[in-house]
Amino acid sequence: MFIDRRSYGLWDPRDHGLPEDFYLTNYTKVPQAKLLEYLKGVGTSIKENETPGLDCAVVKTKFPGIYSISTTDFFYPSIDDPYMQGKIAACNVLSDMYAMGVTDVDTLLMILGVSVDMDPVAMDYVTKELIRGFNDQARVAVTNVTGGQTVRNPWPMIGGCATSTCREGEDFLRPVYGKEGDVLVLTKPLGTQLAVNMFEWMRTAAKFNRVKGVITVDEIVAAYKMAMTSMSYLNLDAARLMWKYDAHGCTDVTGFGMLGHSNNLAQEQEAEVDLVVDTLPIIKGMIKVERHLNNNWNLFKGRSAETSGGLLIMMTPENAAKYIQEYKAVSGHDAWVVGKVVKGSRQGRVVEEPTLIEVESW
């Protein structure tokens, strides 16, 4: 099924000297089994002064009270607009820092894979746009790309490494102080993976026919646009407000989904508490698609991966209400109370039948 991307106000390859059937996401097909094989053994060596399980590496320096906070992340394109994909990649890297309360990032290195499977014209255009998007978003984050590494690769990839030198309690927050009675605040809607997949499904009649009677093309495009808006929005404002409203800990919701990341955060707590997610705000249209597909993405169980997702923050109910109100005023976007911290055994879980909120705009 051909979708005239230009008529929907989306990035169109014809506007950039590329054929109309060019899709950046066609160059990112790596079998999941092969990826898991590659990842075996990664991250198994932890130095004594590092903190495993957190969103960033937290390493003591030789200077008392001073830590080096760093993170590395990269991935293959999930959308077709390479400029927007570059912006999303920068957001995704920086989000791990923001989850630790680090709002001033000293250095940002770019990791770029140039696809050798593209023809030279497409490769040149895509590479330049990925770099431009990444650089532009770094400037919005008030940091600079100071270097990086570029390699030739069968698949295009984009990401980076962020580093900052910090003082504990002043420049970064350890996500370990959750208390019974706290609530969980989420700053972006869920369903990004499903939204971009539905947009991709429209290119294949057999796939699109599975949902054709459930969701319209217009609804899929609207969900896709909302997903891009969310993925390309920095979590910087959300991180800055954590300091003002005394956050007790935070993580960002990305590849492990709500369940995986809430569980990781729960395991880091000093107190014996559980993180219980009872509400899931989801991009409009994706609830009915997920139901129709018999929960194929496990979205309602919190297992669906997100890309450049929101921050999941623990704070008191009183501060959460003020946080959500000011976040809306500062960013123009909604945030939601999605759960609570209860006495337990450092586990995260999503309730059997969570409240589903259809997010109509973000």
Structure commentary:
The longest helix has 21 residues, at 120-140. The chain is 33% helix and 24% strand. By secondary structure, the protein is an alpha+beta fold. The protein has 10 helices and 11 strands. The chain folds into 2 domains: 24-30 and 49-167, PurM-like, N-terminal domain (60s Ribosomal Protein L30, Chain: A, 2-Layer Sandwich), CATH 3.30.1330; 183-359, Phosphoribosyl-aminoimidazole Synthetase, Chain A, domain 2, CATH 3.90.650.10. The strands form 2 sheets. The protein has a 6-stranded mixed beta sheet with strand order 7-9-6-10-8-11. A 5-stranded mixed beta sheet has the order 1-2-5-3-4.
Short note summarizing the structure:
The chain is α+β, with helices and mostly antiparallel strands and 362 residues long. Helices cover 33% and strands 24% of the residues. It has a six-stranded mixed sheet. The protein has a five-stranded mixed sheet with strand order 1-2-5-3-4.
Low-pLDDT sequence parts: 43-52
Radius of gyration: 20 Å
* Number of DSSP strand runs: 11
CATH topological fold name of the largest domain: Phosphoribosyl-aminoimidazole Synthetase, Chain A, domain 2
Total helical elements: 10
3D shape: globular
**CATH superfamily annotation of the largest domain:** PurM-like C-terminal domain
Mean pLDDT: 91
Order of helices and strands: HEEHEHEEEHHHHEHEHEHEE
Percent range of helical residues: 25-40%
Strand content: 15-25%
The SS-based structural class is alpha+beta
Total discrete domains: 2
The largest sheet has its strands arranged as 7-9-6-10-8-11
Question: How many strands, what sense, and barrel or not for the largest sheet?
Answer: 6 strands, mixed
Query: Would you identify the CATH architecture of the largest domain?
Result: Alpha-Beta Complex
N/C terminus separation: 28 Å
CATH class of the largest domain: Alpha Beta
